[in-house]
Write a structure and sequence with these properties.
single chain; alpha/beta; 4 strands; 9% strand
Length: 233
């Protein structure tokens, strides 16, 4: 009879990519994903890495980069954020998830518009988790979305903001940790979501849309964002 690991391996061959991402920790706990002492990596590792590095399969899955980033954060941590289970991450799987994160940018459809991205760098963004995505903090999610947008759009202005606005020089060739590092060193005060709009108005930037990434700890300054938008229009 098959062991549990053997039965899982049979299912793994046909497992949808989204289900595979959700179960990486369980696969490691069952021994399906492991690095042997002498024999290299298990067949399970080869199957998962092959799936993550298959451009056609990744594109067909239509998985959003944030979904892969959440899986990367959880799996590399070696523990479930909602449960008590632990596992030993396999570095080859971690590396494949990292590459898949950047490769999945093409799964997002371009808006084809002139955008201002307002990236909240207030103090509350440090350590605040994204609702519904265990283990993903707001600052990293903010940086990830900035990278995705930079990769897809031809006209993007990145504005960090707390109670003031700070123009950022981000580009599509940057890595996630670089952008997170820039956001960490910028701002740290309160939160005025109208600040990016005031910046564009002052600089006379021609913008089709403002996209503001912020957490729930918002504070309004002298003007409500809706009023600032009305003035900009």
């Amino acid at each position: 009879s098959y062991s549990v690991g053997s039965r899982v391996m049979v299912m793994l061959d046909d497992m949808p990519l989204t289900a595979m991402l959700r179960n990486l920790g369980n696969l490691s706990k069952l021994g399906v994903l492991r690095k042997g002492i002498l024999s290299g990596y298990s067949n399970g590792v080869e199957t998962v890495v092959s799936a993550l590095e298959n451009p056609m399969r990744l594109r067909k899955s239509r998985i959003h980069p944030i979904t892969i980033l959440a899986a990367l954060n959880t799996y590399s941590s070696g523990r479930g954020f909602r449960g008590t289970g632990t596992w030993k991450p396999v570095q080859r799987v971690v590396d494949a998830l990292d590459r898949a994160f950047y490769d999945s940018f093409e799964n997002v459809e371009s808006a084809g518009r002139r955008l201002v991205l307002g990236l909240d760098v207030s103090g509350s963004m440090c350590g605040t988790s994204v609702a519904g995505i265990a283990g993903l903090d707001c600052r990293k999610a903010c940086a990830a979305m900035a990278l995705v947008t930079s990769a897809l759009e031809e006209s993007v202005t990145h504005i960090a903001f707390d109670t003031k606005a700070y123009e950022l020089k981000l580009n599509r060739s940057m890595r996630l940790d670089q952008v997170v590092g820039i956001l960490e060193k910028t701002g740290g005060g309160g939160t005025d979501c109208a600040a990016p709009i005031h910046f564009a108005l002052k600089r006379k930037l021609a913008v089709d849309a403002f996209v503001i990434y912020t957490d729930s700890e918002t504070w309004y300054g002298s003007q409500h964002p809706a009023q600032a938008m009305k003035e900009y229009r």
